[in-house]
Amino acid sequence: MSDTRPNQATAAAADREAIRPFSIDVSDEELTDLRRRVSATKWPDRETDPSQGVRLEMIQALARYWATDYDWRTFEARFAALPHFTTEIDGVDIHFIHARSKHEDALPLIVTHGWPGSTIEQLKIIDPLTDPTSHGASAADAFHLVIPSLPGHGFSGKPTQTGWDPIRIARAWAVLMQRLGYTAYVAQGGDWGNAVTEQLALLKPPGLLGIHTNMPATVPPDVSKALATGGPKPEGLSADEDKAYEILKHFFATGVAYAQEMGNRPQTLYGIADSPVGLAAWMLDHDERSYELIERAFTGQPGGLTRDDVLDNVTHYWLTNTAISSARLYWESHLAFFDVKGVDIPVGVTVFPDELYPAPRSWAEKAYPKLVHFNRADKGGHFAAWEQPDTFSEEMRAAFRSLR
Fold this sequence. Notes:
46% helix, alpha/beta
């Protein structure tokens, strides 16, 4: 009798690697428990200085709205209506949204989120990019969109072994695009999405035509060394370069504590897996400008984000229990976020004014010798696609137009 086990193993592997539809299933009990936990928050005393972190008045306003008026089901219906899929790559289930344009010759684009973002960041750009003619743009600028959840984030699987750094994720993205049948495509990312996208560019997988970033890694070695050591500022900086240097100096001095904690001891953060309000506060304090934008949404002066936008994302993290699994990416990665990586394929850069630092064009030209697009947007920050989807969408069209 012949042994059929090898054939069975091959079939099982093929089944795991298949592109499978994915559905979202959140029970009423989970939502009831969330509201109960929010209402039962034990509050500290008020801050003695606003610079100490997320203000008590603001987070209490968020909690009141979250516990009483916020409706996950409204968001869930809109989110679940999108084409969600999953496939196993390198032992981990990768969740992704795959929104194809009605224009068959559209350019495939894989867009990667960061932390504390998610695929929710990209929802507002799906229609403008896949259906440009309904948004005042040309059919020639259409995209097929692939929007994956990073491993350990959202509805993707949680790695049970170490090693899932941006380099490994980039390899997985190359497999994903090949598995989807795309032989020519472009890629985009900010925050961790930029780290993954630049590593994808360094891998140069077959079919990758170019990349775009809204958080470019352009800091020259001498500037990076001065920032890291506290040494003297490099001489000869232009006005734009000096501004970028001073903003980065301030950020490294006051704005990276969350990254240091997650980079060193992510498992210790049990509180953000147990307390919804703890999770919200941790996520909201990513950087000063983003926090100011989010705070305005809860004080009656909304900017690019609404209260529901903010809570859609935080609730998504809570319901998927990915507070700590997402934090591990900081532990896994040993890449310097802003240092030049040596990307030598075509690159587009958009500088949003409230990003962590405003990359000077002079640095971008040196970091990316094949810079095909550079623009400074009038407004927007770290979560550019989420905050300013119209501007972001136009930047995608402009950046990749020459690569079609």
